[in-house]
Design brief:
2 domains; 6-stranded antiparallel β-sheet; 6 strands; alpha+beta; single chain
Length: about 350
């Protein structure tokens, strides 16, 4: 049963978290506004869109970004206050076990973790879509596609190649389509240029040659122009990595399947993002246990000592997360391991601190 002491701790926990996260979001908004105000004025961004389109959708993203860090800081802060005021000693002296004392902390951490999962996979993708559209319109133009020698698998056994593609004109140079079955080529199409028709949603080939192979028999055909439907669009290879922030969990999984089919190296970024959306909310629980174990004892240094240790561990967690993600996207570290290594390491630390905490 939830008792008064549980309600008291949960209220302290969530209240401190909301206060801390609100304060940092206000500071972030002030700094972001000071940085972008010239762009807003120069591009004549409407005031209502700045407030209700940009910053209203800006808040959930940064709340979720700072959530584990400020959960930890909130736990350190109010638990140190409880310890300094000898409230924890009174609870333990009254017969409440340390494990029982952890219950309201765990409940609060689970609530915040569930809220973070909802933000990451449901609310933030839609909010990011509006925020990024606003930024592309009034802050910075979308990045242009500048890759050359594009290789892609568009469906099993079908491969395309383009020497270059211009996303401004939707035109590619030296296009090739090959169809392979059981390791043997049976169809090949070459075209001097290929252009995407945005109205009819089809490709136009110019100066094309088609070679169809059936055993020892071959059939050749060619022409100056051919309209055709192919299993890809310009978006398949001009898509920016920032767009994965606009995908919910199901869309992200579909994109991973597509990137795997294409053989794209960008799949690493999508895999890391997928696993981070679960691992980061779980970090809320891990950091809560560390925070309680670290700050429940009364020390001469008071709250300042606990906050100092808490901030050090928080930045260490962020550093581990960034390092492991870099190894996953630029090395051979599996994405699932990269996302969970910080939780594993800090989980071990949490169990040790929990074991050594005063009972």
């Amino acid at each position: 049963m939830i008792k008064k002491i549980d309600t008291y701790i949960i209220r302290k926990f969530l209240g401190t978290f909301v206060f801390a996260i609100t304060l940092i979001i206000l500071i972030v908004i002030v700094f972001d506004l000071s940085e972008k105000v010239d762009d807003f004025i120069e591009n004549k961004a409407p005031l209502d869109e700045i407030i209700f389109v940009y910053y209203l959708n800006f808040i959930p993203y940064f709340v979720n970004l700072f959530s584990p860090l400020f959960t930890f800081i909130a736990v350190i802060f109010f638990t140190s206050r409880l310890a300094t005021n000898t409230e924890i000693i009174s609870m333990l002296s009254a017969g409440i076990s340390f494990r029982r004392l952890l219950v309201p902390y765990i409940i609060s951490a689970i609530l915040l973790a569930m809220f973070s999962v909802y933000l990451s996979n449901v609310l933030i993708p839609r909010a990011n879509e509006k925020r990024l559209d606003f930024e592309h319109t009034y802050v910075s133009s979308p990045s242009r596609f500048r890759e050359r020698n594009i290789h892609m698998q568009i469906r099993p056994g079908e491969f395309i190649y383009m020497e270059s593609f211009n996303d401004r004109t939707n035109r590619g140079q030296r296009f090739t389509l090959e169809k392979i079955e059981d390791g043997e080529l049976y169809y090949k199409l070459d075209a001097g240029t290929i252009r995407w028709d945005t109205l009819d949603k089809k490709w136009t080939l110019q100066n094309y040659h088609i070679r169809e192979i059936d055993g020892l028999d071959e059939e050749l055909s060619f022409g100056r122009r051919k309209d055709t439907v192919l299993n890809f669009t310009p978006q398949n290879f001009t898509q920016s990595l920032s767009e994965m922030e606009t995908m919910n969990f199901r869309e992200l999984q579909d994109q991973i399947d597509l990137e795997r089919l294409k053989g794209s190296p960008n799949i690493r970024f999508f895999l890391v993002e997928k696993h981070r959306r679960i691992a980061v909310p779980f970090a809320t629980l891990v950091l809560t246990i560390i925070g309680v174990s670290l700050s429940c004892r009364k020390t001469k240094g008071g709250i300042g000592l606990h906050l100092g240790a808490g901030l050090t561990l928080s930045f260490a967690y962020i550093l581990f997360m960034q390092i492991s993600s870099t190894f996953a996207t630029n090395g051979n570290l599996p994405a699932v391991l990269a996302a969970w290594i910080p939780n594993i390491l800090f989980g071990i630390l949490g169990l040790y601190l929990l074991k050594t905490a005063p009972k």
